[in-house]
């Protein structure tokens, strides 16, 4: 399997959704169902003021995550995926779905939860470093970052282990590993910002402008 050497461009994902509206079977796969349940169970807190989901795709996990957040911003690079997410999540007024290519595009504001599920390995090492900088800048003191990645062979720029390990190294000045879960198919890493904060006074912003 020939691996890409640079971050995957938007047209890679456009082509996947053009060929199949659910190319990774997010809506029906037992693997995805169980992984989503494990992801939500691993969240350190039962509720968040402002969440950010990077790579929301068709919105299956988004719909489950939204009730745990006062506001949720979800990004994806593929408009065809976002159209499905908008339909699936149409009854969630506190959710904003935005077309954005990270790390170049990024929403304004701060968040006390940032979720990167099956997305970091689409980037090359240089873009992972830029992504890590974006996360450090926009994470509210005391906030949580959750990484989830399939650990099998890929043709992406990075494997799941390479992506997670690199992101952890790039954020170690700000984030500490709180817990790690590894199954036969995926790994889940929960990182926490060690800066002191009064969680009862968290005022994470829900601004949804995109900056570059």
- Compute the CA-based radius of gyration: 16 Å
Q: Total domains, how many?
A: 1
CATH superfamily: Vaccinia Virus protein VP39
CATH architectural group: 3-Layer(aba) Sandwich
Low-confidence sequence ranges: 199-208
**Helix and strand pattern:** HHEHEHEEEHEHEEE
Broad CATH class: Alpha Beta
Mean pLDDT: 93
The amount of beta strand, in percent, is: 25-35%
Distance between the termini: 33 Å
Helix amount: 25-40%
Number of strands: 9
Overall outline: globular
Q: What is the helix tally? A: 6
How does this model look, in words?
The chain is an alpha/beta fold and 212 residues long. Helices cover 30% and strands 28% of the residues. It is built from 6 helices and 9 strands. The chain has helices spanning 10-19, 30-42, 60-65, 79-88, 125-138, 160-170, and strands at residues 48-54, 69-76, 95-99, 106-107, 111-117, 139-150, 175-182, 186-193, 210-211. It has a 7-stranded mixed β-sheet, sandwiched between helices. The longest helix has 14 residues, at 125-138. The protein is globular. The model is unreliable at 199-208 (pLDDT under 50).
List the helices and strands and how they pair.
Elements: H1 10-19, H2 30-42, E1 48-54, H3 60-65, E2 69-76, H4 79-88, E3 95-99, E4 106-107, E5 111-117, H5 125-138, E6 139-150, H6 160-170, E7 175-182, E8 186-193, E9 210-211
Parallel strand pairs: 1-2, 1-5, 2-3, 5-6
Antiparallel strand pairs: 4-9, 6-8, 7-8
Helix pairs in contact: 5-6
């Amino acid at each position: 399997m020939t691996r890409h050497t640079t971050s995957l461009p938007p047209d890679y994902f456009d082509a996947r959704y053009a060929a199949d509206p659910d190319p990774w079977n997010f809506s029906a796969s037992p693997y995805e169902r169980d992984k989503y349940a494990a992801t939500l169970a691993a969240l350190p807190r039962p509720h968040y003021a402002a969440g950010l989901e990077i790579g929301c795709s068709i919105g299956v996990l988004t719909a489950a995550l939204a009730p745990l957040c006062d506001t949720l911003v979800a990004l994806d690079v593929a408009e065809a995926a976002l159209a499905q997410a908008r339909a699936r999540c149409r009854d969630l007024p506190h959710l904003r779905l935005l077309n954005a290519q990270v790390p170049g595009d990024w929403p304004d504001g701060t968040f006390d939860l940032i979720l990167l599920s099956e997305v970091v390995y689409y980037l090359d090492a240089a873009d992972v470093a830029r992504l890590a900088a974006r996360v450090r800048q926009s994470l509210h003191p005391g906030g949580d970052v959750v990484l989830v990645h399939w650990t099998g062979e890929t043709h992406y720029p990075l494997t799941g282990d390479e992506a997670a390990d690199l992101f952890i190294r790039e954020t170690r000045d700000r984030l500490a590993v709180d817990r790690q879960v590894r199954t036969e198919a995926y790994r889940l890493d929960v990182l926490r910002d060690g800066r002191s904060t009064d969680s009862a006074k968290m005022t994470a912003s829900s601004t949804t402008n995109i900056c570059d």
